[in-house]
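Sample pair:
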Amino acid sequence: MKFTVESGQEEDGRWLAEVLELPGVMVYAATRQEALAKAQALALRVLAERLEHGEMLAEPINILFAAA
């Protein structure tokens, strides 16, 4: 699985990061690096929830995050 993390700085100085392939996975942080890390962590939590609830196949997966 490959996930694209898009980031940008808001007018108020906060950084926003969003995982495009996972609707709703969006975070704010003080720095770009923090926003990217938080977005990746949230994406992993969402994937874990999906596995636990049988929404994804429980097979070995490779995950790659790419910043856009």
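The mean pLDDT is 91.
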